[in-house]
Structures are given as C-alpha cells and as structure tokens.
Amino acid sequence: MSLDHTAVRHIARLARLAVREDELESLRSDLERVLHLFDDLAAANVDNLTPLAHPHDQSLGLRDDRVGETDRSEELLALAPFSQGGYYLVPKVIE
To answer: Is 80 left (phi over 0), alpha (psi -120 to 50) or beta?
Structure first.
C-alpha cells in the first residue's frame, strides 16, 4: 500500500499527533514499512498449523508447600515501645 503526505497528515490527525512538515516523509516511509509487514504476515501460509499457547514447551518445577518461618508477631511486638491487641501504637500525627 502506498501512502502520500495527505494520508499521513490524516492518520496523524486521527491519532492526535502533531507532525511537522519536515517529518512527513520519514513518517510516511515508516508507516509504509509497517503496512508491508502486515501484508507479508497476511500472506503467510498458516493452514494446518496448531495454535501455540507458548512457543516453548515448559513446565514449572513444583516445590513442597511447607512453612518456612514461624509466627514471630509476639517477639516483634515486644520490641515496640507501645502495643495493644496485636497492633503497634504510634503517636497521633494528624490533628
């Protein structure tokens, strides 16, 4: 597909992009390359191909579900200057 500067300006306006006149040719060239890529992808023969969820057959190694640390909340609360009901008490900072 071939684009002219009018089409590039229209696409830029639709995309809400400000494009200077000196950028039009570069943008036109980039857009044409993208459109050619889409044409190449559309022309690819994908008949009789099974879809892939992932390009590599990988499986994650599973580990045992076991407790790694014990509950240390009482020890940590004992380090606080003030605590009540399992919570740290802090001074009021907002009036």
So the answer is: beta
Q: Does the pTM of the predicted model rise above 0.70? A: no
Is 29 domain-assigned? yes
| Strands of the chain, DSSP E | 83-84, 87-88
| Distance, CA of 31 to CA of 47 (rounded, Å) | 28
CA–CA separation, 66 and 15 (whole Å)? 53
| Residue-wise pLDDT tens digits, 5-63 | 999 999 999 999 999 999 999 999 999 999 999 999 999 998 988 887 777 777 888 88
| Domains in the chain, number | 1
The SS3 assignment for 22 reads helix
CA dihedral 20, 25, 27, 30 (to 10 degrees): -170
